[in-house]
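Narrative summary of target 7.
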Amino acid sequence: MKRTFLLLLTGIVLAVAMPTAAQGPPLLPEETVAALAEELSGELAKRNLELLAQYHRMRGSRQFRAAAEFIAARAREYGLAGVEILQFPADGKLFYGTQRSRPAWDAEFAELWEVREERGRRVRIERLASFDAMPVSLAQDSESAAVTAELVDCGEGTRETDYAGKDVRGKICLVAAQPGAAMPLAVERFGAAGLISYAQNQRQAWWGENRNLVRWGHLDSFTPTKTFAFMVSPGRAATLRERLARGEQIVLEANVNAGRRPGFYDVVTATIPGADVRREEEIVFSCHLDHQRPGANDNASGCATILEVGRTLAKLIREGRLPRPARTLRFIWPPEIEGTMALLNARPELAARFVAVVHMDMVGGGPETKAVFHVTRSPMSLPTFVNDVAEAFAEFVNEQSYQFATTGRAAYPLVAREGGKEPLAARLAPFSMGSDHQVYADSSWAIPAIYLNDWPDRYIHTNFDSPANIDPTKLLRAGFIGAASGYFLARFAPEDEAAVLAVLERGRLRRLAAALQMSAAVPPPEAEILKREAVRYEASLVMSLERFLPLTPQRAKALEQIPQLASLLGIAGEGAGAAGPGAFVFRRSGEKKGPMSVFGYDYFADHCAARNVCDPRLLRFQGLWGAGSEYAYEVLNFADGIRTAQQIRDAVSAAYGPVPLELVVEYLQALEAIGVVERVQ
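Modeled conformation, tokenized:
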């Protein structure tokens, strides 16, 4: 057995290390790959991105509508069919599954000035913020105000001690926290008139280095308390704090014309119709259109890239250079998460057609952003071969772009004339949360999603997320991976099955190598569980082809071979049966569809207070490879009416690191208390 195990490891290493370039493009015919590579344009994608970045694209706003109309006009110009802007009411009261709709928010004007009294009249000294010049300087969901008041340094702004000995009533608080986090104490408790925040950007290696970054700020979308908040850079805030510390009085004049109102989620959609009886099945290209201006990488990049994919595929099909695929290709430009939630809940007949999604959120970051490109898988609760298709094309682009960077020659360099020539070096990544893909993959719909994304990006959610930092070559390569993956899935037919099974086998070797490495970091009983779940996952990947094609003898044979991996990995058996609470079985009640935490709203927190179940320990748990929110997402996804709580615990432990069974049971019971799941055994 030991010798067999060593041979398996050797095979894994050799297979994973084996280059793919000599084998030519994967899955698609060479002429199809050549046509995509020739027609896709990173420069055209960037031109459209530059236009989108001119809009301050807040949900329900007039500028979001203008951006939506721009996308719709371009889609019609490019020959896409069925172009329309769907509207879903959003008033702060309506629910779309677990998403409470947020009212529309518009801003017309906002300025912040330092002023002082000179000879009995007020004189403006310096403008600290202007919505017209930099829309990100006004926090989202600010309300109209005309205030002249002293500035008070309130530290972080989220602790009562930050206000000890300070009179902030009617004044403006300078805080380090996000406005929404500081508002309950500063405004509601202690009576401040408004806020100025210098909240830092999301933590990564470059956190805090650039003192001129102004971060996108947010207030609560649902609070009845009306206030305003301006955002300033850390450098500006440091100067203000130093002056206040010296005892200077700083008086500010804030004028804001903004506010919430009942409105609509606008969702642009268009199609390339399929060719035959499978046209009712749809492959979706998704992104999110909303963001502050400029919001270039996040997420004008994804919006412009799927638009370029649509243009390319429509043109090549129209000219007869590509066969029309069997399945329909659909393109969707919604507000992030909340627009997708509205679409899937309000249009169930449409959602029922979706068989796979290619989601793009941040796909154009150039070298200045320090971005790393990822091809991210669906969660372990949703095993799907779809991700292996995307990984195959990503590895192809990695190899081709590396060859070109090192030798100046490659069959498919995928380089834009106005872009860089660096290799792509896309990372093949496990599931992570943070965009619309997590809505599609939620067990309410279980739609497999390929997630193409940059992380980190040191300019995300700041005024520096500008078109100047976008690389047309990166847009071209992301567009190629997405277009090739989506087009292959749309045309996937029985004659393609052998190639897909070969791709799955190659990915299996890489994943098992990773599982073996991870198993060394946990105790032997947990290592046994991890390896068992890894083998089970591989079998489920093969079975996932049935969503596209009926079972074939070739696939059945592939399934028969997978259990042999268990013995090769040294797995003794199926493991101990469940007992006590571990034997409980839960399933979703079906009444509220979607994840528990959506956009600007937490369904779980909002519904659990009256039932005293608001603080399950799982939400605070930190595993070896995951955090509480990830465990919670997958626990709910695995609650399928078949798995026991013990089996759910084992599955999430294999994904994110060992977690105590009682934490999983406690969270499931909390979900039961608020009617999200029901116990069936």
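The mean pLDDT is 94.
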